[in-house]
Structure formats: structure tokens, C-alpha cells
Write a structure and sequence with these properties.
It comes from Embleya scabrispora. Keywords: Sigma factor, Transcription, Transcription regulation. The chain has 319 residues and is α+β, with helices and mostly antiparallel strands. The chain is built from twelve helices and six strands. Strand 3 and strand 4 form a beta hairpin. The protein starts with a helix and ends in an 8-residue tail after the last helix.
Length: 319
């Protein structure tokens, strides 16, 4: 490859990098693994002796095959994972396509990514390429190494599984953001009554710590139980100076929690429907938000909160 050809190939790859990352992330639910898959795709593209007719088709096929292999080994690790497993929080999807913005936003939600975990790697690949990124079946068949007829069957099965458990969200994004803003305002103010008013009767609060951080909500179900949990958590979080910054997480209303030095403590994601919060997901595993910024020591913060609580007036029956 001449220097001019190499420069052209590199430029073409960089233009397609957002798409490749977005494909890989939807397969893997991991920012780091998706970035590694994209880098490996570049190495294979760079080493290819010939330039493909369609760089997009070629690179998408390569990143798909790499992601399928990574996903198969990742599933073995996830079987040994401590507690609920959530994807790594993604604050911004680098790939933008106005014509498919709805599909892109829905497919990156925590709920949708967890639903994709139920599919086989091949079903997941076909679904993501077809339903999310609108690839044709000839391209999909080449990417996964199956016939077009087999890919069509895989697509039907995958779509059926996804439709059976497809998450529903509030249609109006502005209404969702407004309600989430009220929730986190009430959280910062320690107003548990206001928080209760925003929760659905069957609200579910669930957390992913991977056994590596204090977990106050593995699975908590129901308005009364979640309210009691928040009534305990809110003042403890305030005691150690945690800053709550609302932010879209995986295309949904959420927030990033940081300690007083700006280090990431956790990310929260809200599922909202019918004007109420249906699910609160908290990502506490310190390995998962490392791409967002430096990560706090949640165990140290928990110990500090307990010490401060013990010395507060009125604690342990003192005046």
C-alpha cells in the first residue's frame, strides 16, 4: 500500500469509527471491549493486502465477527458475575443518524441491552445489524457467515424474543427529562416525600456492584420498600458530599454521582412510563464507569458516611 493509499484508508476508517463502536457496544455492553474490538478491526483493515469495494460493509463485517467472539467468552465470565450484571454506562453514542434516531436511542437503553443478553450471539448480531443499523441481508450474511435464508430466520426469532420483552418508555423525551429533573432535585434536597410521589406503585430498584462496591439495592421492589431505601440512602450520600449531576445515560434520563473531588461514584438510570419512575438502575461496580473519569473509593465513602452518621446529634440516642 502506498503512503497515499494508507492515508486514505486511515481517513476512511476514522469516518466509520463511530458506527463501528456503536455496533460493537450493542454486542458487548462494554465501552472498553467495544473500543478494543474497533482497534482490532483497524489492525486487520490495515493488514489487508487489498482495499474492499465497500469499506463500510467490510469493516462492519470484521467488527461483527470480532464482537461475536468476544461476546461468547464474555458470557462465560458473566455466569460467574456477583449479583445483577448491567452494561457499562454510555453517556454519549458517537454514531448519529437522524433517520434512525429512535431505533438508535431505544437500542442503547439499559433495558434493551439486557434484553439482547437473552439472544444467542448470532441472533444478537443479526438483530443489531438489521433492526438498528438497517443493513441488508446480503451484508449481514457475509458478516456472520450464514446464508441469507438463515439470517432471515435468525432475524424473525430475534425480533420475536425482543418484542416479547421490549421495554416501554415515556414517548415524550421532554416529559421524561422533566420528571427525572424533579427526581434528582428532590434527591439533592433530601425530600423523600417528593421522591415518593414520582415513583410507580411497583417500582423496582436494582444495582450492579459486581461485589466490588457497597450495594444498598440488589433487588428492591415496591413503592414502600424503595421509599424506605431512599430514605436511608439520601442522607448518607449527602453526608459525604456526593454531587448529583443529571445526565442522559444510555439514551435515558439518569445522573452521574461524583464525590467531592469529582471522582465517579456511580451512574443511575431511570425507566419512566405513564408519568412515573418504573425502574431505577444503579451502576456501582468501579470497573464500569472508568471511561467516564477517575473513580471514587466507594468503600471508603461508605465508612466515612457511617462515621459521620454515628457522630451526628441524636445518633445512638444522644441529644
Amino acid at each position: 500500500m502506498t503512503p497515499r493509499e494508507a492515508a486514505g484508508a486511515a481517513r476512511q476508517f476514522e469516518e466509520l469509527r463511530p458506527l463501528l463502536f456503536s455496533i460493537a457496544y450493542r454486542f458487548l455492553g462494554s465501552v472498553g471491549e467495544a473500543e478494543d474490538a474497533v482497534q482490532e478491526t483497524w489492525l486487520r483493515y490495515e493488514a489487508s493486502p487489498t482495499r474492499p469495494v465497500s469499506a463500510k460493509a467490510f469493516l462492519s463485517a470484521v467488527v461483527t465477527r470480532i464482537s461475536i467472539d468476544v461476546l461468547r467468552s464474555a458470557r462465560v465470565r458473566r455466569e460467574e458475575y456477583v449479583g445483577p450484571w448491567f452494561p457499562e454506562p454510555l453517556l454519549t453514542d458517537p454514531y448519529q443518524d437522524p433517520e434512525r434516531s429512535a431505533e438508535l436511542a431505544d437500542s442503547i437503553s439499559m433495558a434493551a441491552l439486557l434484553l439482547l443478553e437473552r439472544l444467542s450471539p448470532l441472533e444478537r448480531a443479526v438483530f443489531v445489524l438489521r433492526e438498528v443499523f438497517a443493513f441488508g441481508f446480503p451484508e449481514i450474511a457475509a458478516a456472520v457467515g450464514r446464508s441469507e435464508a438463515a439470517c432471515r430466520q435468525l432475524a424473525v426469532r430475534a425480533r420475536r424474543h425482543m418484542d416479547e420483552g421490549r421495554p416501554r418508555f415515556e414517548a415524550d423525551r421532554r416529559e421524561r427529562e422533566e420528571l427525572a429533573g424533579r427526581f434528582f432535585d428532590a434527591f439533592r434536597e433530601g425530600d423523600v416525600d417528593a421522591l415518593r410521589e414520582l415513583l410507580a406503585a411497583d417500582v423496582h430498584m436494582v444495582g450492579d456492584s459486581g461485589g466490588k462496591a457497597p450495594l444498598f439495592a440488589a433487588h428492591t421492589l415496591g413503592l414502600a420498600n424503595v421509599t424506605r431505601l431512599l430514605a436511608v440512602a439520601v442522607p448518607q450520600i449527602a453526608l459525604v458530599g456526593v454531587v448529583v449531576t443529571p445526565h442522559e445515560v444510555n439514551g435515558q434520563p439518569g445522573a452521574v454521582f461524583r464525590d467531592r473531588d469529582g471522582r465517579v461514584v456511580s451512574a443511575w438510570v431511570l425507566d419512566i412510563l405513564d408519568g412515573r419512575i418504573q425502574t431505577i438502575r444503579t451502576v456501582l461496580n468501579p470497573d464500569k464507569p472508568a471511561h467516564v473519569g477517575p473513580v471514587a473509593d466507594a468503600w471508603a465513602m461508605s465508612r466515612e458516611a457511617n462515621r459521620r452518621h454515628a457522630t451526628e446529634p441524636g445518633a445512638n440516642g444522644s441529644a
